[in-house]
Amino acid sequence: MQNVTRLCQTKSIVTVNGQFPGPRIIAREGDRLLIKVVNHVQYNVTIHWHGIRQLRSGWADGPAYVTQCPIQTGQSYVYNFTITGQRGTLFWHAHISWLRATLYGPIVILPKRHASYPFPQPFKEFPIVFGEWWKADTETIINQAMATGGAPNISDAFTINGLPGPSYNCSAKETFKLKVKPGKTYLLRLVNAALNDELFFRVANHTLTVVEADAVYVKPFKTDIVLITPGQTTNVLLKAKSKTPNAKFAMSARPYATGPATFDNTTTIGILEYKKSASASSSNNMNIPLLKAKLPQFNDSTYAMKFNQKIRSLATRKFPVKVPKKVDRRFFFTVGLGILPCSKNQTCQGPNNIRPAAGINNVSFVQPNTALLQAHFFNRSKGVYTTNFPTNPPFKFNYTGTPPKNIMLDSGTKLVSLNYNTSVELVLQDTSILGAESHPLHLHGFNFFVLAQGIGNFDPKRDPAKFNLVDPAERNTVGVPSGGWVAIRFLADNPGVWFMHCHLEVHTSWGLKMAWVVNDGKGPKQKLMPPPADLPKC
């Protein structure tokens, strides 16, 4: 625990090595990482290496009660994995309850030695990690919300590299500053580590060039504004102006929010400053104006859709797109909100003893009290999980139109079982139950290809004609459009149990999650390794 002061209030937060945000991990493609995590706090802890493929090393993936029991107070666990065929920006974060509010940091994977970027070599690189800050204790907030069946309190600020910036009370001193030299090009490694908010980001009077998303190179494109959901990473090039301007420039981020609920409608600001040449006097530095960055309306879903459609894979000989051309299994998943009855030990705020919940295909996922991967590996799934997760919603309705009368969800620990090397096509459909909303869905253990997205209900007859099989974006987290759908494909070439969930933490808490069991293949390199000896016990 570490005392940290923000917004004029000091609170004790969970940190790694006393640092907030946590330390940056720098590695190279092909490196093996050994990360010892020792738990000195009163909470159970796990760490997830978000976006790392974890080929055959599912024991190191980190989601609590999915691939491991949490590390208990006074215990430790060594995360042991190799970064295979990946380079770029990812991040690590806690993967239990809401601890990732303060437990997160960037992962920078450099290309192999003597390999270059497929874009101009930047002069310098900087991580820009967006976070979300509560004055109150986040564990108390979510625990109270789960107990009362109410919605958890919204955050008080957003942060850039842990700093809220000048738009918040007494935070002018806590502002991230980026100092640049005229004419130089900088690589900004953007990470959205916020809990519950997608973000628009803009640097005043500067154009950004997007070159990578979720640690996969993309066809470079210029944009003034970047949209980034929780769980996503985006690398952008920023070219400094050739002459030192007589201004400072706001680097601003604020939410893209589509749901019916209240949200933290504040703006975090960092400052881009030009380094003065030796001849320029430093006396006039105080009265240099700060130019503001104009951002889209908070609910501008048209802008969001247009931005996401610009992200395309490089699809070159050196960086090919391995999108599965044939499909073995097709799934149609509705994602969205609903209601559940309150349990006996809850004192529910809601009417008729019901509480808001969330689910996929009408199933609100129940977290087991033992780890799914162990149950799978040792053939002890009985009483822990079933593999009858529905392939389609239990009944058809106008998903993005008038909701059905009955919006009660089922609950259970249901998984989909896949044979090794199955190619999967999955359509994720938002619903308007309790309000349409954009849901950033994250799949562990794989990258998937984003074939198409659209507004309204997916049409299985007409929409597949629009699927891009040439240069689709390859990602680990995708925003399911508000009141719309997205189609993805992935190859189940990684044996294990792989979590898939909404990366808005409130929805994950409410049950918008499920898991895929990928069975071992025949060959020796197609099997999950046995668990490490220090795997935590429940």
TrEMBL record:
Compartment(s) of residence: Secreted, Extracellular space, Apoplast
Pfam family, one: Cu-oxidase
Family annotation (InterPro entries): Cu-oxidase-like_N, Cu-oxidase_2nd, Cu-oxidase_C, Cu-oxidase_fam, Cu_oxidase_CS, Cu_oxidase_Cu_BS, Cupredoxin, CuRO_1_LCC
Cofactor(s) annotated in UniProt: Cu cation
Record GO terms (molecular function): copper ion binding; hydroquinone:oxygen oxidoreductase activity
Catalysed reactions listed for this entry: 4 hydroquinone + O2 = 4 benzosemiquinone + 2 H2O
Keyword Mitochondrion found: no
Cofactor note: Binds 4 Cu cations per monomer.
Keyword Protein biosynthesis: no
All copies of domain Plastocyanin-like, residue ranges: 2-112, 125-276, 389-521
Keywords, ordered alphabetically: Apoplast, Copper, Glycoprotein, Lignin degradation, Metal-binding, Oxidoreductase, Repeat, Secreted
One CC-aspect GO term: apoplast
Entry EC number(s): 1.10.3.2
Class of this enzyme: oxidoreductase
GO terms of biological process kind: lignin catabolic process
Primary site of residence: secreted
CDD domains: CuRO_1_LCC_plant, CuRO_2_LCC_plant, CuRO_3_LCC_plant
Coiled coil spans: none
Similarity-based family: Belongs to the multicopper oxidase family.
Role noted for this protein: Lignin degradation and detoxification of lignin-derived products.
The protein's name: Laccase
Organism: Gossypium laxum
Organism ancestry: Eukaryota, Viridiplantae, Streptophyta, Embryophyta, Tracheophyta
